[in-house]
Design goal:
InterPro entries: Creatininase-like_sf, Creatininase/forma_Hydrolase. Keywords: Hydrolase, Metal-binding, Zinc. Belongs to the creatininase superfamily. The chain is α/β, with parallel strands linked by helices. The chain has ten helices and seven strands. The strands form two sheets. The protein has a five-stranded parallel sheet with strand order 1-3-2-4-5, sandwiched between helices. Strand 2, helix 2 and strand 3 form a beta-alpha-beta unit. Helix 2 packs across helix 6, helix 2 packs across helix 9 and helix 6 crosses helix 9. The chain is globular. The termini are far apart.
Length: 278
């Protein structure tokens, strides 16, 4: 592993970086409620931890720069709960665009956004596209769920579909990473809107291709969805290891991606002129 922390490098270090073989990795989290049993930092903790664990699995010949975690995300859907710290969607897009621009100015052309908060993938996708357009960068958006789910026993089908926030899996991951932050005596089965919508409607879903706009209090009075009482640290380790391995594979793919495949407008216009002459 050739992991370096962005914040620990000097200007000389940046001058000597190889843009073709350097990957910047930006963990994206949030500071928002995760029920009475998990900390506000849950998403940021998961994003940063998975990036650190994935870095240990990356080959030594890849120069990986771990950036400071973007801890404050777009959590307006949780704004009625005390403790939420949030940007608006527009502000967060501006923040990430400016971070991406700083990466480009440092001479680095490959940037991975790794997100652990379900309320901001759309912003991440727009940001990746805009950075590609403006700076000819290879920008990749990923998350734990990009890696699929591991084979694990003890997760009911309902929980796999409905446990989207502070449920069995997320609580298990925090139990594995930081058990001191989990108050299992306050864990509940936060059953609510997702199950009701699925039972009543054929097409509408809270999460899916045809989705309803929602706020956290719509899901459940505690703003959660899923059965946290089923959580175990052992299950958390299974998911953590699976996600870290998946992210490591994404990092390897990005490192191998040829920058020549990123065509500038001038390159494309040149191709068109040649074709017209032919």
């Amino acid at each position: 592993m050739a992991l370096k922390l962005w914040k620990d490098l000097s200007t000389l270090d940046f001058e000597n970086l190889d843009p073709h073989n350097t990957v910047a990795l930006l963990p994206l989290g949030a500071i928002e409620p995760h029920g009475p049993h998990l900390p506000m930092s849950t998403d940021s903790l998961i994003a940063e931890s998975l990036c650190q664990l994935a870095a240990e699995l990356v080959p030594d010949d890849i120069n990986l720069l771990l950036m400071p975690t973007s801890e404050i995300g777009k959590s307006t859907e949780h704004s009625c709960f005390e403790g939420t710290i949030t940007h608006t969607a527009h502000t967060l897009l501006d923040v990430w665009m400016e971070i991406g621009e700083s990466v480009a100015k440092a001479g680095i052309k490959k940037l991975i956004f790794f997100n652990a908060h379900g309320g901001q993938p759309q912003i991440m996708e727009i940001c990746c596209r805009e950075l590609r357009i403006k700076f000819d960068m290879l920008t990749v958006g990923a998350s734990g769920w990009s890696c699929g789910s591991p084979e694990a026993e003890g997760i009911p089908d309902d929980e796999r579909r409905h446990g989207i926030h502070a449920g069995q899996v997320e609580t298990s991951i925090v139990l594995h990473l930081r058990p001191d932050l989990v108050k299992m005596e306050h864990a509940q089965n936060f059953e609510g809107l997702l199950k009701d919508v699925e039972a009543r409607f054929e097409h509408l879903r809270i999460i899916g291709s045809t989705y309803v706009g929602w706020q956290a209090q719509d899901l459940h009075p505690c703003g959660c969805s899923g059965d946290a009482t089923l959580a175990t640290a052992e299950l958390g380790k299974i998911y953590t290891d699976h996600y870290a391995k998946g992210l490591a594979n994404i990092i390897k793919d990005v490192a191998e991606y040829p920058l020549e495949w990123i065509r500038s407008r001038a390159d494309w216009q040149g191709v068109q002129k040649v074709e017209r002459k032919a």
